[in-house]
Write a structure and sequence with these properties.
This protein is mainly alpha-helical. The chain has a domain of 289 residues: MetI-like (MetI-like fold, Orthogonal Bundle), CATH 1.10.3720. It has 23 helices and two strands. The chain has a two-stranded antiparallel ribbon. A hairpin with a 3-residue loop joins strand 1 and strand 2. The relative contact order is 0.13.
């Protein structure tokens, strides 16, 4: 019944005209997300059980991997170093998040901004800062008490810096969601500050702790950039998969390592999912927002702690920037733009900057469009329930897939000549598609969350005014979603500028991006230029973030209906 009016229900929206539209649009998005995420992962899983000639060999590749001592050691290093880095990160992030959400200490907003600064830099940047501080010729090399930075120490230190802002974001959200009534009851029972923390705060934030630990573990376990700079002779799975594929062209063993990288990520995601399910069950509609009490002694101690952490963050980033300005470390410490000039004078490096900007812009455009459409379909339940649920499930897959695994899956899937999408191989388009798939889950959830705030009576009002899909989308959903769409575009743009692992197997000489160029410069022992390139990436990301904030503020100012008059 094309164009028929349909009563409002759980799986239909009245002004979507035509049964075909309600089915074809979700089907189209399911097909796109399947090609971007599911099929490449399936291709990798299949390749792990085949030999070089494409014959099924069962677990033979896994047995061969287990019998190679060096590779088994890499797996052990990944497991243990990731666990240690996770413990240290959570140990620093929890009191920091507590300080900026549950106290009245001064400078909470400033500390939050400093903690999130590493999100705008590639994971390689902290590694460069640590090299200039604690490397063999670093200013503070004696602080490591005889230990070398190039190995487990460097991997753990740089990983803590890299994962810290992610943990702070998750823990801050968990700690900000408490119920003031419980604390008032605890005070009425004469529970002191420490007892209230142990019996109320800690248990109520345990799900955020579990979630943060899971995310941090996966980030560290699957990161490629940090161990490639400060790993030294310490092998981990993330660098071994690169050596196997790029160095030895052993794609079968690379697929095996990809499966091993995927397993902990999936396990951590399941733990996080279970924690979030339990957390939702505890939320009450009568909850009262937390009102932090003034405790001068506690606030002063936490202020000192946050000051030390902020100094470490700024110091590591600042040292990387300083190293990029030094002419030749440590023999010629004259400052200048020599390293930056050499980058801009090199045609290949200059092209990499342009490729990065094109990749980031394309990712932001395509990712924002897909996230808006999938969020709209899921939030408004457009189409059959099975399609809507399938689309939601597909949108959640990328969060559990490491970038290295997804990128290698793209190699197996798109390299197949029988694949109709084979023509994308070696183009910038495949980098865009891979990056969109890698970071898709969070923007999708952002769009769904924003659209769920719209009451379905708005849909009925659009029908009463005889607004078609295009008109309703332009006049209702687009204005409401506009600030969120800006945030989504900014999220895609910044992540596309800084990502390394998802693209390390896909670039060509013509499509090499800036983050990959940094890796190449490190391999060529051009550390100063590599630090300059990483700093340039961070500067571009900061510029994009400032544009995002300004554009969002301008949209909110222009939308007077968001402000309550009187």
């Amino acid at each position: 019944m094309s164009g028929a009016t349909v009563a409002a229900g759980p799986t239909r929206v009245p002004f979507i005209s035509g049964r075909g539209t309600r089915i074809l649009l979700p089907l189209l998005l399911v097909a796109v997300l399947s090609a971007a995420a599911i099929l490449p992962i399936a291709a990798l899983l299949v390749r792990a059980f085949l030999d070089r000639d494409g014959r099924f060999v069962g677990l033979a590749n896994f047995v061969r991997y287990a019998t190679e001592p060096g590779l088994a050691v890499a797996a052990w290093n990944s497991l243990t170093l990731s666990a240690l880095a996770t413990l240290l990160t959570i140990g620093l992030a929890y009191p920091f998040a507590y300080a900026i959400t549950r106290t009245r200490m001064p400078g909470r907003g400033m500390f939050r901004l400093i903690a999130l600064l590493p999100l705008l830099a590639p994971s390689l940047l902290p590694a460069f800062g640590l090299v200039y501080l604690f490397g063999n010729q670093g200013w503070l090399r004696g602080w490591l008490m005889g230990e070398s930075l190039y190995g487990p120490v460097g991997i753990v230190l740089a990983s803590v810096f890299y994962a810290f802002p992610h943990a702070v974001l998750i823990l801050s959200a968990g700690l900000a969601a408490g119920d003031q009534r419980i604390y008032e009851a605890a005070r009425a029972l004469r529970a002191g500050p420490w007892r209230r923390f142990v019996t109320v705060t800690l248990p109520s934030s345990r799900y955020a702790l579990i979630s943060a630990a899971s995310i941090v573990y996966v980030l560290v376990f699957t990161d490629f950039g940090i161990p490639s700079v400060v790993g030294g002779s310490t092998n981990v799975l993330a660098t071994d998969i690169y050596k196997l594929v790029i160095g030895r062209f052993d794609f079968e063993m690379g697929a095996v390592v990809g499966v091993l990288l995927l397993a902990p990520a999936v396990a951590a995601y399941l733990v996080d999912w279970l924690a979030r399910r339990s957390q939702r069950a505890m939320i009450s509609g009568r909850s009262v927002p937390i009102a932090p009490e003034r405790m001068p002694g506690r606030d002063l101690a936490l202020f000192g702690f946050c000051l030390l952490v902020a100094a470490a963050v700024i110091g590591i980033i600042g040292m990387a920037v300083y190293g990029s300005l030094v002419r030749f470390w440590p023999y010629n410490l004259n400052l200048g733009l020599h390293n930056y000039a050499r980058l801009l004078e090199d045609d290949d490096e200059f092209r990499a900057i342009g490729n990065s900007l094109a990749l980031a812009a394309g990712t932001a455009a395509l990712g924002t469009l897909l996230a808006m459409l999938s969020g709209w379909i899921v939030a408004r339940r457009i189409g059959p329930a099975a399609l809507v649920q399938g689309l939601q499930g597909l949108a959640m897959v990328p969060v559990a897939v490491p970038g290295l695994v997804l990128g290698l899956g793209y190699v197996f899937f798109f390299n197949d000549p029988a694949n109709p999408l084979h023509a994308l191989q070696g183009t910038l388009a495949i980098l865009v598609l891979c990056t969109v798939a890698h970071f898709y889950t969070v923007p999708h959830l952002m769009a769904v969350g924003e659209l769920l705030r719209l009451d379905r009576e708005i849909d009925m009002a659009a029908q009463a005014l005889r607004a078609g899909p295009a008109s309703a989308g332009r006049r209702i959903f687009l204005p409401v979603l506009a600030p969120t769409l800006v945030d989504i575009a900014g999220y895609f743009f910044v992540n596309a500028m800084t990502t390394v692992s998802a693209l390390i197997f896909l670039f060509t000489a013509q499509t090499r991006v800036a983050a990959i160029a940094v890796i190449n410069l490190v391999e060529g022992s051009r550390i100063g230029q590599a630090a300059a390139f990483a700093t340039l990436i961070m500067a571009l990301s900061i510029g994009a973030a400032l544009i995002q904030i300004s554009l969002r503020a301008a949209i909110l100012r222009a939308q007077r209906w968001r402000r309550r008059e009187g």
